[in-house]
Amino acid sequence: MKSLKTKKTQANCIVLDTIKGQGVPFFENYAGVHSVKFNSQEIIEATESAIRELEEQVKD
């Protein structure tokens, strides 16, 4: 990444192959994951569940 900062005469591009919401099954399969509005009960519950799961992983 440091070498990208030194390139002043040409454009730089970083391509990442990612899965939106990876590790949270609800969000991995959620079609609107690019712009999630946390205003439905289903999404709020999925988010709270994911947070609880992450907190458990951090404890261990």
Can you walk through the features of this model?
It is a single chain. With 60 residues, this protein is an all-alpha fold. Helix content is 47%, strand content 0%. The chain has 3 helices and no strands. The chain has helices at 2-6, 25-28, 41-59. The two termini are 32 Å apart. The relative contact order is 0.11. The model has no long low-confidence stretch (mean pLDDT 77).
Keywords for this structure?
single chain, 60 residues, mainly alpha
Determine the structural class based on helices, strands and strand pairing. mainly alpha
Shape: elongated
Oligomerization status of the protein chains: single chain
Q: Characterize the biggest β-sheet.
A: none
> Which range best describes the helical content: under 10%, 10-25%, 25-40%, 40-55%, 55-70% or over 70%?
40-55%
Relative strand content:
under 5%
Sequence stretches where pLDDT stays below 50 over 5 or more residues:
none
Q: How large, in whole angstroms, is the Cα Rg?
A: 17 Å
Give, in order, the helices and strands: HHH
Number of helices: 3
Mean pLDDT: 77
What is the number of strand segments?
0
Distance between the termini: 32 Å
